[in-house]
UniProtKB/TrEMBL annotation:
Protein name, entry field: HEAT repeat-containing protein 3
One of the GO biological process terms: protein import into nucleus
MF term (GO), any: unfolded protein binding
Database matches in PANTHER family: HEAT REPEAT-CONTAINING PROTEIN 3
Domain of life (superkingdom): Eukaryota
Amino acid sequence: MTPQQLMSLSEAGTCCEVISVRVNAVAILGITGSTLAKEKGTAATLQMIGKALLQVATSDADLVVNGEALDALFDVFADGDEAETAAKNIQLLPALKALQPVFKAKIRKEGRGKYSPQQLCVLDNIKVNLRRFIGYLEKAMKK
């Protein structure tokens, strides 16, 4: 599958009205990206995946889908030279820093009435992981 085919598939999935389809499309991108991050010469594809995941994390109407996109970003950009290069190129750190207070506020505003206790537990965990991941990226970018 070419990177363009992957992006077309993910775009179709993330535009679907069914929340579980959007979550699964984002998860596929995350798994693919984390696998590619271990390979040489994949920074350009990782940038495409990262941009797509950031788009979903910032603009999807459902908080669970936002959270899944953030979780996928953590997996994709967790380690590796290619991931580090791609993260710098797409300005991942400033994007996540800008997204962090918005995500926290959305959990506070929408969370209690709209989502189950289990979903809220997952979202709170993602919120904590977002803070930690930003710290990790800050240290990685100083190298």
